[in-house]
Amino acid sequence: MTVSPISDRLADVESAVADGRTKIDWAYEHMPILQSLRADFEAEQPFAGLTIGMALHVEAKTAALVETLAAGGAEVAITGCNPLSTHDDVSAALDAHEAITSYAEHGVDETGYYDAIEAVIAHEPDITVDDGGDLVFRIHEEHPELIDSIIGGSEETTTGVHRLRSMDADDALDYPVFAVNDTPMKRLFDNVHGTGEASLSSIAMTTNLSWAGKTVVVGGFGQCGRGVARKAAGQNASVVVTEVDPRRALEAHMEGYEVLPMAEAAKKGDVFITTTGNRDVITPEHVQHMQDGVILANAGHFDVEIDLDGLADLAVEQRAVRDGVREYKLEDGRRINVLAEGRLVNLATPVSLGHPVEVMDQSFGIQAVAVRELATNGDAYDAGVHEVPDALDREVATIKLEAEDIQIDELTDEQAAYLDSWSQGT
Ligand code: RBV
């Protein structure tokens, strides 16, 4: 089915556009990296004549990225990458821009979600920007005829990069895609601080409950898990970590967290937050061990980490107990509360705002330079997953340091020579 842009679907477009505009302006005001890149793009027009198709969480920071690309001459078509993370007013404000079409709408069902992905693809993008990989996968599955004219893509998140690498390993990825997630400027900030802060604040705002004195079980100790664990500990919670990788488990142990298998952690936790990127991290077997009133939340990209079907089978009753909280009542009376339908809690509760502006400025700064690299130098990259060139990561870091007025040292010639030489010992 064809989907029309969001503006055709809202009752009061004008007030939505005004509200969205206010949100975008606030975010952009705090995004010095995008401001700096936008000034360059306005002068150089690197995207003139190009169409960029995007599927990202459509909210204010993302909008600032989209407008930065449009300022560089791009036509942009965008939709969401999760049905619950879209802010309709921001989507409307984007759609009001003459070079931007936004199809994103909050709360669409699965059909509406994929129809909107199709609508973006119908713009025949030269470059794709994904968070989770849906555009790349859909194009490969349903529209392979477009691949020849696609310069390349970029991918925002761990799960998307993981999917792309599997595709690449199967020789099934037919255009180059930059792994934006894997850059230091993204991964060490957005994944750690962004996921940690936004997950905890979304859970706290949704439940109005305190972290202090709680036992928080963190599923997975990757970049996101360590952020969630660190911030929860910082809020005076006791933290338990579950892992499948022996080195990460040891790392969590050495950071001072208790490490347990989920079946054991299930008995102790008050709040469970999954960050693994894998399915079935919390299953009905785990739920059988849980205390009355526990809170289950997922911070991974897809809603597969908590087995909600299994939980529904186990429950004798279900009801909404607060906005964004669903209670599953078990036969023996215990209540299990699931936030945001098991979708990424940092973006998908009714009060979630996504990651803080500062970290998204970094991530989207990398997105912007990655897209610029494709537009200006795309021929240099073969089909497959590519690291973002380190020089681009440094460029974005340098802009940020300048904006923060932080000075650092430079290597002297002698130091540079020393680092390069293998003959200098004692
Ligand atoms: N993320 N986006 C936001 N626009 O508010 N918040 C988080 C936003 C991204 C983040 O970079 C992460 O990799 C991805 O969402 C998970 O879908």
Automatic annotation (TrEMBL):
<feature type="binding site">
    <location>
        <begin position="220"/>
        <end position="225"/>
    </location>
    <ligand>
        <name>NAD(+)</name>
    </ligand>
</feature>
<feature type="binding site">
    <location>
        <position position="190"/>
    </location>
    <ligand>
        <name>substrate</name>
    </ligand>
</feature>
<comment type="pathway">
    <text>Amino-acid biosynthesis; L-homocysteine biosynthesis; L-homocysteine from S-adenosyl-L-homocysteine: step 1/1.</text>
</comment>
<keyword id="KW-0520">NAD</keyword>
<comment type="similarity">
    <text>Belongs to the adenosylhomocysteinase family.</text>
</comment>
<comment type="function">
    <text>May play a key role in the regulation of the intracellular concentration of adenosylhomocysteine.</text>
</comment>
<dbReference type="GO" id="GO:0071269">
    <property type="term" value="P:L-homocysteine biosynthetic process"/>
</dbReference>
<dbReference type="Pfam" id="PF00670">
    <property type="entry name" value="AdoHcyase_NAD"/>
</dbReference>
<dbReference type="GO" id="GO:0005829">
    <property type="term" value="C:cytosol"/>
</dbReference>
<feature type="binding site">
    <location>
        <begin position="222"/>
        <end position="227"/>
    </location>
    <ligand>
        <name>NAD(+)</name>
    </ligand>
</feature>
<dbReference type="InterPro" id="IPR042172">
    <property type="entry name" value="Adenosylhomocyst_ase-like_sf"/>
</dbReference>
<dbReference type="GO" id="GO:0006730">
    <property type="term" value="P:one-carbon metabolic process"/>
</dbReference>
<keyword id="KW-0963">Cytoplasm</keyword>
<dbReference type="InterPro" id="IPR020082">
    <property type="entry name" value="S-Ado-L-homoCys_hydrolase_CS"/>
</dbReference>
<feature type="binding site">
    <location>
        <position position="278"/>
    </location>
    <ligand>
        <name>NAD(+)</name>
    </ligand>
</feature>
<protein>
    <recommendedName>
        <fullName>Adenosylhomocysteinase</fullName>
        <ecNumber>3.13.2.1</ecNumber>
    </recommendedName>
</protein>
<dbReference type="Pfam" id="PF05221">
    <property type="entry name" value="AdoHcyase"/>
</dbReference>
<dbReference type="GO" id="GO:0004013">
    <property type="term" value="F:adenosylhomocysteinase activity"/>
</dbReference>
<feature type="binding site">
    <location>
        <position position="243"/>
    </location>
    <ligand>
        <name>NAD(+)</name>
    </ligand>
</feature>
<keyword id="KW-0378">Hydrolase</keyword>
<feature type="binding site">
    <location>
        <begin position="157"/>
        <end position="159"/>
    </location>
    <ligand>
        <name>NAD(+)</name>
    </ligand>
</feature>
<feature type="binding site">
    <location>
        <position position="186"/>
    </location>
    <ligand>
        <name>substrate</name>
    </ligand>
</feature>
<feature type="binding site">
    <location>
        <position position="156"/>
    </location>
    <ligand>
        <name>substrate</name>
    </ligand>
</feature>
<dbReference type="InterPro" id="IPR015878">
    <property type="entry name" value="Ado_hCys_hydrolase_NAD-bd"/>
</dbReference>
<feature type="binding site">
    <location>
        <begin position="299"/>
        <end position="301"/>
    </location>
    <ligand>
        <name>NAD(+)</name>
    </ligand>
</feature>
<dbReference type="GO" id="GO:0033353">
    <property type="term" value="P:S-adenosylmethionine cycle"/>
</dbReference>
<feature type="binding site">
    <location>
        <position position="191"/>
    </location>
    <ligand>
        <name>NAD(+)</name>
    </ligand>
</feature>
<keyword id="KW-0554">One-carbon metabolism</keyword>
<feature type="binding site">
    <location>
        <position position="346"/>
    </location>
    <ligand>
        <name>NAD(+)</name>
    </ligand>
</feature>
<feature type="binding site">
    <location>
        <position position="131"/>
    </location>
    <ligand>
        <name>substrate</name>
    </ligand>
</feature>
<dbReference type="InterPro" id="IPR000043">
    <property type="entry name" value="Adenosylhomocysteinase-like"/>
</dbReference>
<feature type="binding site">
    <location>
        <position position="355"/>
    </location>
    <ligand>
        <name>NAD(+)</name>
    </ligand>
</feature>
<dbReference type="InterPro" id="IPR036291">
    <property type="entry name" value="NAD(P)-bd_dom_sf"/>
</dbReference>
<feature type="domain" description="S-adenosyl-L-homocysteine hydrolase NAD binding">
    <location>
        <begin position="191"/>
        <end position="352"/>
    </location>
</feature>
